[in-house]
Amino acid sequence: MIFEAALLGAALLLGRWLETPAFRQLQVDPWGVALGLFAAAPLYLALQWCLRTRWPPLARLTRLATERLAPLFSGYSPAHLALIAALAGLAEEALFRGVIQVALAEHMSEWAAVGAAGVLFGLAHAISPTYAMAAGVVGVYLGAIFLLSGNLLVSVVAHGAYDLVALRILVRLKPSASY
């Protein structure tokens, strides 16, 4: 939680420095929440596929998450996981979509900014090359839904909702020799 709070601080400071307020395009409304939950569905489906596939890069990724990330969150209550997921959604979307993507779009096309912010998002999650690539794809997806909806809340909710489900699944995974 400290790391995510620091990211939120970084988003606010960088946004101020770039004159791109992190929450300029945040409109809190039920429609944004509903769209965010709907937008999380493809992420859930991709997660389920990743957990079931035998494709070696994704099987290694699942093993890596089970071995390195699951211990970080095991023993946390569902409420604690929800708080972590909500803070991650808010902080990471404020930084990567609300500040970086918007600032980049002032110097390149909006879709190029989506791609560039997605690459940076992937690099920020580089615990392995496969994880960085997967996170980059997710970053592009979240950037696209932000661009298409015009509301940062949609990507915040999609990110937070996905993280909550992923964390709940992650803490239940046990290392397995079958990978």
Low-confidence sequence ranges: none
Percent of residues in β-strands:
under 5%
Structural class: mainly alpha
Q: Radius of gyration, Cα only, in angstroms?
A: 16 Å
Main beta-sheet annotation: none
Helix content: over 70%
How would you spell out the order of helices and strands? HHHHHHH
> Total helix count?
7
Determine the mean pLDDT: 93
So what's the overall shape? globular
Distance between the termini: 30 Å
Count of DSSP strands = 0
Describe this structure in words.
Helices cover 79% and strands 0% of the residues. It is globular. The chain is mainly alpha-helical and 179 residues long. Helix 4 (78-105) crosses helix 5. It has seven helices and no strands. The mean pLDDT is 93.
Provide keyphrases for this structure.
mainly alpha; 7 helices
Summarize it.
The chain has helices at residues 2-17, 30-52, 56-73, 78-105, 110-124, 129-149, 152-172. By secondary structure, it is mainly alpha-helical.
Topology, pairings included?
Elements: H1 2-17, H2 30-52, H3 56-73, H4 78-105, H5 110-124, H6 129-149, H7 152-172
